[in-house]
Amino acid sequence: MGGAVSAGEDNDDLIDNLKEAYYIRSDLVERAFRAIDRADYYLDEYRDNAYKDLAWRHGNIHLSAPCIYSEVMEALDLHPGLSFLNLGSGTGYLSTMVGLILGKVFLVL
């Protein structure tokens, strides 16, 4: 998985390619992906790789391939009101997209 789906120019190209390859199948997951630009989770000097369907690691920073995140989000059957705990959440890219779908989140300390 990863690498063969997209070498898009921007976030919309990435999502269009993931949809065309049937990684993104639901409108809810598509809207979450379109709302969050993957390049915002990259260091500036590596942003030219943000729209490729590849995993990326730099030191302690890690992003899985977008096709992996889309498969996870589709498989979880996400909808408002559910809870979500992402252990080892890395950059927060996946957690941010899931949070958009789940809606209000309350943090209890």
UniProtKB/TrEMBL annotation:
SUPFAM superfamilies noted in UniProt: S-adenosyl-L-methionine-dependent methyltransferases (SSF53335)
Gene Ontology, cellular component aspect: cytoplasm
Transmembrane segments: none
UniProt GO molecular function: protein-L-isoaspartate (D-aspartate) O-methyltransferase activity
Any matching Pfam family: PCMT
Family membership noted in the UniProt record: Belongs to the methyltransferase superfamily. L-isoaspartyl/D-aspartyl protein methyltransferase family.
The protein, known as: Protein-L-isoaspartate O-methyltransferase domain-containing protein 2-like
Upper taxonomic lineage: Eukaryota, Metazoa, Chordata, Craniata, Vertebrata
